Amino acid sequence: MEPVNILIEQLHVMATGAIELVPQLVVALVVLLATWLLNKLVSTIIRRVLKRSNLRQSLKELFTLISSIIVWMAGIMIAAIILFPGLTPSSMLAGLGIGSVAIGFAFKDVFENFLAGIIILFRREMRIGDHIECEGIEGQVTHIAIRESHIRQTDGQLVIIPNSILFKNAVTVRTDKDQRRVTVICGVAYDVDVDEARTVIADAVKSCETVETDEKPVQIFAQEFASSSINFEVTWWTGSTPLEIRKSRDEVVSKVKRALDDAGIEIPFPYRTLTFKEPLPLSGGGKTEAD
Question: What is the pTM of this model?
Answer without folding.
Answer: 0.62
